[in-house]
Write a structure and sequence with these properties.
181 residues, 2 domains, 4 helices, elongated
Length: 181
């Protein structure tokens, strides 16, 4: 973390692009597909193949059902990406200029419509992807920070350092149980 600065570190102001938004959605979706409960599907497919190989009709039905589920998942992924692009084109709020800054205590967001100060521990989770960082305020709501907004590579590392120091978990890793009391 960068503790030698006098005030908030200013990130560049920018506007989200189609690549920013669809890249963030793709990262979210790809990471959710490798969760343990999703990985059970390939195991079930193997069981179905073994049953079909042994001549059980139920094995073929099982394979057919899993194939249909897989195709529906791919179709859903395509529809989410196309809906995301359409929302970006039609939602005027997504076309406003964004500016992020931070200090040791909080993360600041400024748009044409509002300003927010969010203490680091109040974030739900964060996720790193190629070319950007996602900082979640809740399960399905996050800030997209493309690498181009950071004046220096160290600034991106500084944001991640603040998130880690505040105990904010990485998205899609097992969450720690908060102590009661």
């Amino acid at each position: 973390m960068n503790s030698n600065h006098a005030g908030p570190i200013a990130a560049h102001a920018y506007r989200l692009t189609d690549a920013d938004v669809t890249g963030a959605v793709r990262l979210e979706m790809s990471r959710s597909l490798v969760r343990p409960r999703v990985l059970i599907l390939p195991a079930m497919l193997i069981v179905g193949l073994i049953a079909a190989w042994q001549g059980y009709i139920i094995g073929w039905a099982f394979i057919g059902g899993l194939t249909a589920a897989g195709l529906m998942t791919l179709l859903g992924w395509f529809l989410v990406i196309s809906r995301t692009r359409r929302n970006l084109r039609t939602n005027k709020l997504l076309h406003t200029e964004l500016a992020y800054s931070w200090d040791d205590a909080a993360f600041f967001v400024k748009t044409d419509y509002s300003q927010s100060r969010i203490p680091w521990p109040d974030f739900f989770a964060w996720l790193e992807g190629p070319g950007f960082l996602l900082i979640h305020t809740q399960t399905v709501s996050y800030f997209i920070l493309p690498d181009r907004i950071f004046a220096r590579h160290e600034d991106r590392a500084d944001v991640i350092g603040h998130l880690r120091a505040a105990g904010v978990p990485v998205r899609f890793k097992k969450r720690r149980q908060k102590p009661e009391g």
